[in-house]
Design goal:
The structure holds two protein chains of two kinds. By secondary structure, chain A is mainly alpha-helical. Chain A has a two-stranded antiparallel sheet. The N and C termini of chain A lie close together (about 10 Å). In chain A, about 75% of the residues lie in helices and about 5% in strands. Chain B is an all-alpha fold. Chain B is built from 29 helices and four strands. Chain B has a two-stranded antiparallel sheet. In chain B, strands 2-3 form a two-stranded antiparallel ribbon. In chain B, helix 2 packs antiparallel against helix 3, helix 8 packs antiparallel against helix 11 and helix 19 packs parallel to helix 24. The longest helix of chain B has about 40 residues. Chain B is globular, with a radius of gyration of 28 Å. Classes of the chains: A mainly alpha, B mainly alpha. At the A-B interface, helix 6, helix 8, helix 11, helix 13 and helix 16 of A face strand 2, helix 5, helix 6, helix 28 and helix 29 of B.
């Protein structure tokens, strides 16, 4: 069995173990979750370092026919696009299990759902059969709705849970329609990515079908990522979700949508790419600029983080819209970086909420004084959020800017960079209100974290900085795989300013398993 | 590509390790303090002082090895990120320009560290202060040593962050927290242009490395085509932010809320000088012929240098005028810094980056000295910063007074016995050589203003009799605070006697023919031979400024200007309303957009689309209740229909 299969398997086994542990040992549930996700961290780390740098194809592949009649395979593998995401997914899951002390009722159900969600995320990221990718993504989404509905905060939780369910189910459904169309129209009789790629190379779909399917996938998966104007579920949902749910969803599950676009839509439908990138370039400015302005108006820390997170996703879409090696590499880099960043932000706001009972910006102040560690970590995370060097998110955003410069009109690039400037404005205003200044009444009583309580924050913050200082460790893994995707998504060579084809040409065949 | 080179252990096997050590030592000390050493004050002090002192020693060594000989050290870069046509590495440039700047940065930084051991002695967060100071020094050295535009931009932003941490060091104080935020955001506005400029240059040439760019632009001056002026101006915008030029100057006076030694380091000698240094580093970019793309063709022959020269000149005048009506000792120095930075930028614009670097070097010494002197005064007067509540300090604080006076003479440009005289003269000569008589006159006028506001400061704060209880009990601070003052006084007097102008000329234009630099015996009176017009006019204005200050302020108990010239005085005390202009234009405009987007999101996207759609779906569902349709399927249907509509519309 490929070690990759352990990644979803361990959390699922953990979920089973939680279910089977009787209430007399209720303290064990959390430790089971921590242990299960902790071991996946080890597996993911070994996958990351066992990954052969320089190969663009799939590695550590396992392939078993499952339902041959409809071409359904249990086909898993990892490439440069997923390897970094797997690593950060395991870290986010581990941190999310650690911070879930806050859950005081129905803990058994909570940890079961959390572990199912984690397993689903891993399943989606390693699947090379689009059916399984979709299935696992849905498997991870359903617990989200339940967790918000059951453990959410505040009086609006049912309405918000309803809204997020509505949006995400429908987004997923539209994507499903797209996948079904792909299955039906391609004639390949499979959704296996590898087989489908080879098949579509020989038998390309007519342009109109490609355009239709790409559109469905773009809006379907795009809604899952929070593509403007289908975004409003995200900040609202994260605003009231339990901490672990917000960390998992904003951190990693949301990226699965963009990941699916890179797996399914871009490499398989080049004619669709050509039709839709201009639209995508405009919509992503909605995320970057519009959501940035919306973030400026927020009076709640979580709503601010939610809108800021949408702005970061806008940069992912911007990178994708460039369909260039540099831009798409940057987009994947942001996905990895932002997984850590978003999870860190929600973990911190969760702690602050537990301690002070409020996330209302106007009632907060002086956190640096009352909670030195959490305050400093919050300031650090917020600086990372406005694109300061030294954090992986900066490397990603910078790379995207370079990637889109030759490909998209200059005003798109200027507007996007302007979005980062807006990000600086609201983040620094928030730091000023939350962390600086004299301590506010609401934050007086709050306690800082204990030594063991620092673990989840450090697990997220340290890699965010390490990847920011040495982004090549990610980029060198991402680049060859992105080169393959870009090559397929844009058969005609791009008008790059410099010989960008060197890396494309240097992609050898995947290594023997 | 995995990292190809890592610095090896000390002792160095080759000289690039020395340069890496200079860069990394302050970072290592900052990290060590943050991660644990902060428990011990002694260790914190020892480590951070040693790191910078060793850095200074190594800088001097490199200066003698590479700076004087004009050799260029080719260092193996560290990989950072490489994808497609974008290849960014962290490299080092060790040449004449950078080694001298290294000495300035590490030297001033060391003295500020030393001074801070006294000034910050009673602060409970002493270790955090030294960690931030180390982090700042690291970031600044990164700019100095950078060998490409992206690396410069990275450290540029890190300097912004570390200055944010230092200005906001006393974050409990609302004014300090606000000032830190303002400094960071204002710098960001300049960086916005800087990165666009970098993208533009990279798009046209495919490289961001200084050496490769200089070679390409030297070989083919038309390489940027019609974008050359635009690229230059965008890159210059970065310097407008960091070096606080009009209209982004508003952050610097507010940044005085930080601890005073911080102001000496970052708001006098280093951070604000980074903009000027960067302009000199990429000066080849400004030598390209002016050209504009089609829609901007009406700008004709306006070159980036024109914009730079006028921005600098106007900043110099603007800030000099404001300084004469400030009462806060640090704010006077802050506006003075703006004014002197304006000189440097103007010199770059006049095609004299060598003069700009010359003035940068002398200014770093005497302005750091002025700020540290002001720090001593503030320390001795129990955090009193208003000069009208000082007075008579000359007798009680002799060391502070005499060193402050020396620095004041240097700032005003007193002939022969001050370094500022020589470096300012180089700037006036550059303005004349570039055939910009208006800027020349403007620069000379600013000499008068400088002398006026500095004499006012010295007369009121140091001479006469004490105007407050605190001032009557003031005394010179301890030796760790007076020693840096004495050390800095030496270069403030004598730096101009060294042939720094020729040194920088050779550093920036290695292939240019030597100017007719006179014999060494002549060096003291060189400016009178070299550009007699500038030297004599400057001397005249200096005398004029001094006389005005003497008449108006000698023995005065209150400032006569508000009574004599009420309108002008009020306008100057309100800093010529620059902040108010921002508060009336840019900020509400931007907040207006945000309000619009926020309202749209709340009422239209969420209210209309979401609630409206769910309301409509609800009605629809009631209508379909006979068919027993569950809600979710209905929504699903509607959503798919909507997306299909979008798809169809897009296909049209």
């Amino acid at each position: 069995m490929s070690s990759l299969s352990l990644l979803p398997l361990l959390p699922f086994l953990g979920a089973l173990a939680v279910l089977l542990t009787p209430s007399a040992y209720r303290a064990a549930w959390r430790y089971i979750a921590i242990a299960a996700t902790g071991i996946t961290v080890l597996v993911a780390v070994s996958v990351f370092f066992g990954f052969q740098v320089g190969y663009g194809g799939y590695q550590m592949v396992a392939n078993h026919a499952w339902v041959p009649a409809i071409g359904l395979n249990y086909h898993v593998g990892v490439d440069g696009i997923s390897v970094g995401l797997l690593l950060v997914a395991s870290l986010v899951a581990f941190a999310a299990s650690w911070v879930s002390e806050e859950i005081r009722d129905h803990e058994k159900l909570f940890y079961t759902l959390l572990l199912v969600m984690v397993g689903g995320v891993f399943g989606a990221l390693i699947s090379l059969d689009l059916f399984f990718l979709y299935f696992f993504n849905e498997l991870a989404l359903v617990p989200t709705f339940l967790m918000i509905g059951i453990w959410g905060r505040g009086p609006d939780k049912n309405a918000v849970a309803f809204q997020i369910t509505l949006y995400l189910s429908l987004g997923a459904l539209v994507a499903l329609v797209g996948l079904v169309c792909l299955y039906a129209l391609s004639g390949a009789n499979t959704l296996d990515v590898v087989t489908l790629t080879a098949w579509l190379k020989e038998h390309p779909l007519p342009e109109s079908s490609q355009t239709l399917i790409f559109g469905l996938l773009l809006f379907g998966f795009g809604t899952l990522v929070g593509l403007w104007p289908f975004h409003s579920w995200a900040p609202q949902g994260y605003g009231i979700a339990p901490t672990a749910t917000a960390m998992m969803h904003a951190g990693i599950l949301k990226k699965v949508g963009a990941f699916a676009l890179l797996r399914a839509a871009f490499p398989l439908l080049p004619a669709g790419v050509a039709q839709w990138t201009q639209v995508l370039a405009v919509l992503c400015l909605g995320n970057i600029v519009y959501c940035g302005w919306v973030a400026m108006r927020q009076r709640d820390l979580n709503l601010l983080f939610g809108n800021s997170s949408l702005a970061h996703m806008g940069f992912v879409f911007l990178g994708l819209a460039s369909v260039s090696l540099i831009g798409v590499t940057g987009a994947v880099l942001i996905m990895v970086a932002h997984a850590l960043l978003a999870a860190l932000e929600y973990a911190l706001s969760g702690h602050v909420y537990r301690q002070t009972g409020t996330l209302d910006l106007s009632r907060m102040g002086g956190l640096m004084r009352t909670m030195p560690f959490v305050g400093a970590a919050l300031v650090t995370a917020m600086l990372a959020g406005c694109g300061v060097p030294g954090f992986a998110s900066f490397a990603g955003e910078l790379t995207v800017m370079f990637g889109v410069w030759p490909e998209l009109p200059w005003y798109v690039v200027s507007a996007a960079w302007g979005g980062l400037a807006i990000g600086g404005v609201y983040m620094l205003r928030a730091i000023r209100q939350v962390a600086h200044g004299p301590a506010a009444e609401a934050t007086m009583s709050g306690a800082d974290v204990t030594w063991s309580g620092r673990v989840p924050f450090l697990v997220l913050l340290v890699p965010l900085i390490l990847f920011g200082v040495a982004p090549y460790s990610l980029v060198n893994r991402i680049r060859p795989s992105v080169a393959l995707v870009v090559q397929r998504a844009r058969p005609v060579p791009a008008t790059a300013p410099a010989p960008a084809t060197a890396a494309v040409a240097a992609v050898p065949a995947p290594p023997a398993h | 590509m995995e990292p190809t080179h890592l610095p090896t252990a000390f002792p160095p096997t080759n000289f690039q390790d020395l340069a890496w050590a200079i860069l990394m030592l302050p970072l290592v000390s900052a990290l060590a303090i943050t991660l644990g050493l902060r428990r011990s004050r002694v260790l914190t002090t020892t480590l951070s002082l040693t790191a910078v002192a060793v850095g200074f020693g190594l800088s001097v060594w490199l200066f003698f090895l590479f700076g004087i000989s004009g050799q260029h050290l080719a260092a193996t870069p560290l990989a950072w990120l490489s994808v497609g046509g974008l290849d960014v590495h962290l490299g080092l440039t060790v040449d004449s320009l950078s080694t001298l700047m290294l000495m300035v940065v590490t030297g001033v930084s060391f003295l500020v560290h030393l001074y801070s051991t006294g000034y910050m002695e009673d602060d409970p967060e002493y270790p955090r202060y030294f960690a931030s100071l180390g982090f700042f020094t690291f970031s600044m050295l990164g700019i100095v040593l950078s060998d490409n535009l992206v690396q410069t931009f990275i450290f540029w932003e890190l300097v912004g962050v570390s200055s944010y941490l230092l200005v906001g060091f006393w974050y409990d104080k609302p004014a300090a927290a606000d000032a830190a935020k303002k400094a960071f955001l204002t710098n960001r506005m300049g960086d916005f242009g800087f990165i666009l400029g970098i993208l533009l240059i990279w798009g046209a040439t495919g490289t961001v490395s200084f050496d490769a760019l200089a070679a390409k632009m030297g070989a083919d001056p038309a390489v940027l085509g019609s974008l050359s002026s635009l690229a230059g101006i965008l890159v210059f915008l970065g310097a407008v932010g960091k070096s606080a030029q009009l209209p982004l100057h508003v952050w610097l006076p507010d940044a005085m809320e930080g601890p005073t030694p911080v102001s000496a380091l970052i708001h006098a000698a280093t951070m604000v000088a980074a903009g000027v240094y960067m302009l000199c580093r990429v000066f080849f970019l400004f030598e390209l012929p002016a050209a504009w793309p089609g829609p901007l063709a009406f700008l004709g022959h306006l070159s980036a240098l024109d914009v730079i020269a006028w921005t600098g000149g106007l900043t110099s005048l603007f800030a000099g005028v404001i300084a004469i009506q400030q009462d806060d000792i640090k704010r006077i120095l802050a506006y003075s810094t703006l004014s002197q930075l304006g000189y440097m930028v103007m010199a770059v614009g006049c095609g004299g980056p060598d003069a700009a670097m010359f003035h940068l070097t002398t200014h770093a010494c005497f302005k750091a000295l002025l700020f540290l002197g002001a720090g001593s005064v503030i320390y001795a007067c129990h955090h009193e910063q208003n000069i009208w509540r000082m007075g008579g300090l000359a007798k009680r604080m002799p060391i502070t007074f005499w060193t402050f006076l020396i620095a004041t003479m240097a700032l005003c440009g007193l002939p022969v016995v001050s370094s500022g005289f020589y470096s300012k003269d180089a700037i006036f000569a550059a303005a004349l050589a570039a055939d910009r008589p208006v800027l020349f006159v403007l620069g000379i006028l600013v000499v008068g203003l400088t002398t006026l506001y500095m004499s006012r400061l010295v007369i009121i704060a140091f001479l006469g009799s004490a105007r407050s209880d605190a001032a009557s009990h003031a005394a010179d601070p301890g030796r760790n605070m007076t020693l840096p003052l004495i050390i800095l006084a030496v270069p403030s007097v004598g730096l101009g006697w060294l042939p720094l102008g020729a040194y920088f000329r050779h550093a920036i234009f290695p292939h240019a023919a030597e100017h007719g630099m006179s014999e060494a015996s002549d060096v003291f009176f060189e400016p009178f031979n070299h550009s007699p017009l500038g030297a004599f006019l400057g001397l005249g204005l200096l005398a004029f400024g001094l006389s005005v200050a003497y008449v108006a302020y000698w023995g005065a108990s209150a400032d006569p200007m508000p009574a004599r010239l009420p309108r002008l005085s009020r306008a100057l005390r309100n800093r010529l309303y620059a902040d108010e202009i921002y508060e009336a234009t840019v900020i509400p405009l931007h907040d207006g957009f945000a309000a619009l987007a926020g309202g749209f999101d709340r009422w239209v996207v969420q209210g209309f689309f979401v609630r409206g759609a769910s309301g409509a779906v609800d009605l629809f569902g009631r209508g379909l209740r006979l068919a027993q349709t569950g809600n979710l399927q209905t929504y699903a249907f509607l959503f798919v229909a909507g997306v299909a509509l979008v798809v169809l519309l897009a296909l049209k």
